[in-house]
Amino acid sequence: MRLLGGPRPLDPGPLFETLAERGSPTVVRLSRPLDLAPEAGCSWTIPQLADLVREMSAVLTAAKVRPGDRVAIHKRNHWDYALLAAAAMRIGAVPALLSDRLDPAALAVLLDRLKPVLLISDRYTLALGGSAHGVRTLSLDGPAAGAVALDTLRGGAVPAVHRRPDDAPLVINHTSGTTGLPKLVVHSTTSLVRRLTGIEAHRWPVVSIRREDTAASAIAFAHGRAVSWSISALWARPRTVLVLADAEPSLAAPLLRAHRPTVLEALPATYMRWQPLAAEPDTPFGDLRLCISTFDAVHPPTVRDFLAASRRKRPIWVQGLGQTETGPLTFRVLTRRSVAEREQRHPTTRDLGRPMPGWVRLRVVDPETLRPVRRGEPGVVLTRTPGLCTGYEGEPERWQAKLTEGWFNTGDLGVRTRTGSLRLLDREVDMIPGLSCVELEDVLHDRLPELAEAVVLAAGEGRPPLPVLVTRDGELDPRRWQHAVRDLPPLSEPLLLGWDALPRTGTGKVCRLQLRSRYLAGVAAHGTGRWT
Length: 532
Description:
Helix content is about 25%, strand content about 25%. The protein is built from 15 helices and 29 strands. The model is unreliable at about 1-10 (pLDDT under 50).
């Protein structure tokens, strides 16, 4: 297989060197300087990035990191997660990318499973307790108690590129952890690069990045998506790449206005925070031709507002279902017409499209028997995909529990429609019999534009679900609430919180388990959580 004019680079370690040798014209612009190189500013060429990755591979070698060693990276969200991962991959080590949003207790467990030879962090994250785990630590941005400063290891000889077998571990990422302790997902070159990234890096009509594009990414860079996006986006040689490390609109807006994106990939929670920017008369999103969202459910008003913000004739929104273990499973294109109908109980963004043809197979099964159910009946979603990860680090039993005769259990509840598309209901652990929390949340967002977030929690037998709401001004008109729920199943009186009061994962997902423990303590859930 060949793509974009040449052979595919199978190892992300020397990716930037390969791109530099081929004369890539891409300029990468950052919303703030890299924590790895704070003095170097916010504009980088590909050759400069290649030099930085080479330098960091020399630093890791000086820190006595060797091929096969685990290197944990735990720092503030920024693209240097991907650059540090590339440096580790370049010398044959296995980077494990850990979000700074991890609970300290969860971080301790994951580090114990990883047993890394080195923890890479920054002073901000170390001050939160990241250095209290007995792991040899490297501080990126200056001296920190108990850590070696980066500058003390600079200046060594650049090592040669280490080539690893394609099926050997390449990178470790963790799942979101919305339903409990995150799992450490191990991907190989075969699963992550040859298969998942290889498909994306082809030049597909409409949905691929083009050379004239300004492609922006505002994701959780500790996620595996950061590695695959870095490969596929940069291999496309776009004119400009924008990296937005912070979702706060005031921090992101200057870069978005200075270099208006034509392609934007962001977390659903980030899209929601940027909706006011999309509504401005001089919106920075006027040039968008393509929006991409895969990390979580996205609500119809969010899609509608971003497509309406574009001055282009036919902008599109691409969404799908995917998990850290599997990569993308389904694919759907939304247009202005797709989300034109308002305030109705219709699937819209919960219709996640069809499995990728010739690549992914889906099966909806009964949760008890694991036997397939008929089209139109709800069940647990299983998948077969060649991009499946190789397992969970330190938890082989948990991995085996997710597999049934070669089918991977996603833990999602869904319905296969008569046309073959997948309609999402809920995570199994969050389920409410006969209802869909995701559907209720969609309807509330559609009927109450003042909502910044709506989360519906199962409240146990005999009790109506509890809606947890965040509004943009902190207020909620009771009359508007009553109108919004007029034809919905009974709900408890809403609990109104501030944005920062919602516990979130590194990918912006609301931690429903933590909300339940805070506001529904002692109330049994309906779901079993067997596959979380």
